[in-house]
Amino acid sequence: MDSSLLLSEVDAVPHLPTNFIWPNEYLVDVQGELQAPVVDLDGFLRGDQEATQYAAKLIREACLNHGFFQVINHGVDSRLIREAHSQIDTFFKLPIHRKLSVQKTPASMWGYSGAHAHRFSSKLPWKETLSFPYHENTLEHVVTNYFKSTIGEDFEQAGVIFQKYCDGMKQLGLKLVELLAISLGVDRLHYRELFSDGCSIMRCNNYPSCQQPSLTLGTGPHCDPTSITILHQDLVGGLHVFADKKWKTVQPRLDALVVNIGDTFTALSNGRYKSCLHRAVVNKYKERKSLAFFLCPKEDKVLRAPDSVVGMDGTKQYPDFTWSDLLQFTQNHYRADQATLPNFINWLLSSKTTN
C-alpha cells in the first residue's frame, strides 16, 4: 500500500506495515523533561543591554549542553501563528489525490511527502509534510506564488498567510543569530550578514494518530543539517531530545517557539555549540502538527567559523564548505542522523581528494 494512502486511511489499517516499524533501539522510552531555558526576548528586541546579555548567557548555556531552548515575547504575532496552523490543517485534510498532485519529485525539495516514501523504503516516519522555499531575493512573494501556482488558486490566502509567517520567522532568525554571535563573543552582525540573503526552508508537519504508536516514530532520531530551526508545536506534544544519555520531552507552550542548533551552525561555532539528536513520537488518539522554519545561508557562500573563535580554540575543527555541499550530501547520499556532520566532512574531504 502506498504510504501516502496509508496515512490518509489510517483508521482502516489494523496492523502497522513493516516498513513503518522501527527497531527497538530507536524506541527507548522517554525519561523526564528537558531542562531547556525559556528565553524572554522582550528586552533584547527593545535594545536593553542588560536583558540582551542575560538572554545571550541563557542561550550560551543551552547551546554548550544540548542546543535547544525556547523563546517567548519573540515578536511574531500569535494570531498569525494560529492562522498558519489553521491553513495547514486545511491542506492536510485535502483528498489524497489532491495532495499527491503536489508530491515531491526526486529532483526537488519542495512539495508534499507522505512518510518520505519517495526517498526511503524502511524505517518510514509516521507523518506527512509540505515543504516550500522562502527567500527575499526577488520582487515577487515567493511563498504566496508557490501556494497559488502549485497547490491551486483556492490556496492563495494560505500562501499570503505563510508568506507573512515566513517573513516573521526570517526576521526572528536574523535576531537569533545576533544573539548567538553575542553569546560566542564575536561581532553581533557576523552571522546576520551570512544569513541575510539565504534561501530558507519551511516545512509543515502532520503526524496522524496511530493505532500502534509504540512501534513507530513520527520522525526518527536525527540532527538537523541546517543552521537553526525555529519550531512551533501544538499542545499534543511529542518532541523528544537526547540529552545526558536519555530521551527527554520538550514541553509544548503555545506562546513559545522552540529553537535548536543544526549541524551547519555547529561548524560555524567551531564545534562549540551542539546540534543535538531529537525525534518525534506519535499519539494513539490525537494527531499532532508542527511548523518548522529552517534558517539557511545562501547555497554558494563559504561557511567557516569566525577567526576569533578559532583563535581562542586553537584548532579549526571543520574544513570550509558551502551549504549546497551539505544539502547535496543529505539529499542524495545520506539519511540525516546523529553522525551527519562527521560523515559529511569525510565525504567532502574524500570527494576533493578524488577530483
Automatic annotation (TrEMBL):
GO MF annotation list: gibberellin 20-oxidase activity; metal ion binding
GO biological process, alphabetically ordered: gibberellin biosynthetic process
Keyword Ubl conjugation annotated: no
Cofactor(s) required, per the database record: L-ascorbate
Highest taxon listed in the record's lineage: Eukaryota
Lineage of the species this protein comes from: Eukaryota, Viridiplantae, Streptophyta, Embryophyta, Tracheophyta
Reactions performed catalytically: gibberellin A12 + 2 2-oxoglutarate + 3 O2 + H(+) = gibberellin A9 + 2 succinate + 3 CO2 + 2 H2O
InterPro entries: DIOX_N, IPNS-like_FE2OG_OXY, IPNS-like_sf, Iron_ascorbate_oxido_reductase, Oxoglu/Fe-dep_dioxygenase_dom
PANTHER family in alphabetical order: 2-OXOGLUTARATE (2OG) AND FE(II)-DEPENDENT OXYGENASE SUPERFAMILY PROTEIN-RELATED (PTHR47990)
Keyword list, A-Z: Iron, Metal-binding, Oxidoreductase
Pfam families: 2OG-FeII_Oxy (PF03171), DIOX_N (PF14226)
Domain named Fe2OG dioxygenase: residues: 195-297
Name recorded for this polypeptide: Fe2OG dioxygenase domain-containing protein
Protein family per UniProt: Belongs to the iron/ascorbate-dependent oxidoreductase family. GA20OX subfamily.
Pathway listed: Plant hormone biosynthesis; gibberellin biosynthesis; Hormone biosynthesis
